[in-house]
User: What shape does this take?
Amino acid sequence: MAARDLAGIRRDIVACRACPRLVEWRERVAREKTARFADQEYWGRPVPGFGDPAARIAVVGLAPAAHGGNRTGRIFTGDRSGDFLYTALHRAGLSSRPQSVSRHDGLQLRGVYLASVNRCAPPRNRPTPEERDTCLPYLVQELRALDRVRTVAALGAFAWDGVLRAFATLGHRVRPRPVFGHGAEVVIGPYTLLGCFHPSQQNTFTGKLTPSMLDSVLARAKVVAGLPS
Assistant: This one.
């Protein structure tokens, strides 16, 4: 049932043209490309979630990268952030491969589902509040379909905020509002929300987020979700 529901959500996401600024940007990037990917055909559409329909863990990011997910059509795929994340997922036994390069590469996720607050690549990686709110129902729908998810790891403050808003829509609120931080943990309704610094180059190249730090968050997510270590 979850797989069928997710397939319908995926179709709706890919066809979405609700935010004119984001539509213009993602399609312009796909036409103009960047030199190192000039020979590739870009996806240039909203990027749906990806993963195991029976997932017990959801990992939520900000939005696709202009030359990552917007190029490959798979979330966290084709950029340095994705390389860092998928390598960690593989170490944790949640991914069949340590690198995601294409939506056709055969990689499979086990026990985890990847999503984002916004599904179109935004200019300067900054969706507007209106764009966030317009896209957020897709995350709500995915969480409803993923009825076995018990742990949600939010990558960065924007994702943390988006997940809290999605939980509120689902009827799960907590007061006072939890503050984002790496390693933050709070129980909200049936979910445990974990905070993790985003695996952007700004964080990984400076050591703000190290492989061991991400490994610790994923290990905690598995424990809370009841997955074998």
